[in-house]
Each structure stands twice: as structure tokens, then as C-alpha cells.
Amino acid sequence: MQKDEKFCQRSGMSMKSKGKRTQAGQGDCLASMLGTGIQSLCELELYPIPHPVDVQWSVSDLSAKLKTVEIKGNFGEYHKCSQELALQAEVEKVLDFIPSLLTEVHHRHLNSQAKKSGV
């Protein structure tokens, strides 16, 4: 078993320090975001990073998985932090740049075939 897999299988993966606060909780928050992010990726089978040939998901499936990744900070009285919305926005940005596989030529051909077949 690889080191990364052992890490993912550990139970109680909280990296929050108990009761200690750094300036605005930043250190605790970063540790918490790392812990929740990795744990969430493990649950979705996205960490450790799979070999490309082993991935059987469509782009749509992969993006849906990535949109559910939890990256939560240390929620406290003075500091609240989460990167889930930022990750979702980045996934959407990447998806927006994927060109359509059907060009205008394809559409014209499909329409002409539909007319010929009576569809």
C-alpha cells in the first residue's frame, strides 16, 4: 500500500489545533483546509491522483466530482474560511473554455441527414 493511500485511510483526519489561535486563526485554517480537501479528494477517488489510463469518467463526471470537493477552514469566532466556492468557480471557468465538438459543418450535415431520413 502506498504512503498516500495509508494517509487517505486514516480515520479522524482533523488537522485543527485544539484551542490554540494563531493570528486570525490563519495557521489553523490552512491546516484545516488542507485536511478537509485531501479527505474529500480521497472519498471521491481523486487522491492519490489516478493514472490517466485508469480514469473512466467523462469530463462532465469529473467536473461534477470536483465541484463537490470540500475545502473548509477552521470556523471560529474570528476567522471563517472556505475555498469550496473558489474551486467551483475555477471548474466552471475551465469548462467554459472547452470548445464544442460539433462545428457548424457538423450541424449542417446532421440537419441535411435528418431531412433525408424524414426525422
TrEMBL record:
Q: Where is this region: Disordered?
A: 1-23
Q: What is this protein called?
A: Uncharacterized protein
Q: Which organism is it from?
A: Xylaria arbuscula
Print the organism lineage: Eukaryota, Fungi, Dikarya, Ascomycota, Pezizomycotina
